[in-house]
Amino acid sequence: MSTTRHVVNRQRRLAAVKAREIAVPASRTPRPKPRKQAPRVPRTARRSVPWILLLTLLAVLAAAFAVLAHTRAEDLREAPALRNGALTDTARTSEVKGTVGQAVDAVFSYDHTAPGRTDKAADKYLTGKAVGQHREMLAQVRSQGQRQKLVLSTTVTHSGVEAIDGARARVLVFADQSNTSTAKGGSATHAAAMFAVDVLQRHGTWRIANIDTFRG
Q1: CA dist., res. 191 & res. 178, Å (int)
Q2: Taking phi first (over 0 means left), then psi (-120 to 50 degrees means alpha), and beta for anything else, what does residue 147 get?
Q3: Full set of structural domains in the chain with CATH
Q4: Are 96 and 164 contacting, i.e. CB atoms less than 8 angstroms apart?
Q5: pTM score, two decimals?
Q6: SS3 state at 154
Q7: Which SS3 state, helix, strand or coil, does residue 50 take?
């Protein structure tokens, strides 16, 4: 009997404990803490950030451009280009261009029947270093002129005044040259030439002072 009573009492105690567990108020049951949510950024604010950066960048670029434009303007005001008469004095440029065209046609043409004509042209249009350059360039023509009955003709086709600085100027010349031998069995050759001449003005006349054939 005692054993049976023990079992019964034990079952009663277990039932009482279980009943107390079930009867615990719900408020005492620990609840999980709510998760904190990140604050929401208004949609308009999120979209405005790139525009702020863009406007800042544009402001910086505008300031840099203003500084660059000012510096460039100062450079242009001091640039040698503004002192170049070929860019500012059309009448003087035309005068130089016309004189050089006549000079080149005359000094680089030769006729075996009138060789003195080339010499006179050289005396009229050449000065300084150009005198020796011209003599060297036409040496072969002169040496063979009478024997082969040579006729050398030079015609300026295009020219451009690169610079005029006071009484000095530089002109780029393009010309066609024809060299014909009128002797028996002779032939004719045609070629294009390009070179530059430096000219000086003396006593109101422009003269070729240097011939640059770009040969180094």
Answers
A1: 7
A2: alpha
A3: 83-212 (3.10.450.240)
A4: yes
A5: 0.61
A6: strand
A7: helix
Cα 201 to Cα 153: distance, rounded to the nearest angstrom:
26
Specify the residue for token string 């530089």: 170
pLDDT over 80 (residue 14): no
Cβ atoms of 209 and 200 within 8 Å: the answer is: yes
Nearest CA-CA partner of 160 in 80, 100, 207: 100
Per-residue pLDDT reduced to its tens digit, 1-11? 445 555 556 66
Average pLDDT, the chain: 79
Q: CA-CA distance, 111 to 149, in Å (whole number)?
A: 8
Identity of the residue numbered 154? T
Per-residue pLDDT for 181 more than 80? yes
Is the pLDDT score of 17 beyond 60?
A: no
- Residue 45 pLDDT more than 50? no
> Six-digit token pair at 146?
């009478």
CB count in 10 Å sphere of residue 97: 19
Pairing state between β 110-111 and 168-181? unpaired
Rounded to 5 degrees, φ, ψ at 136 are: -70, -40
- Cα(71)–Cα(37) distance, integer angstroms: 55
**Which range has the worst mean pLDDT, 12-21, 72-81, 115-124, 130-139?**
72-81
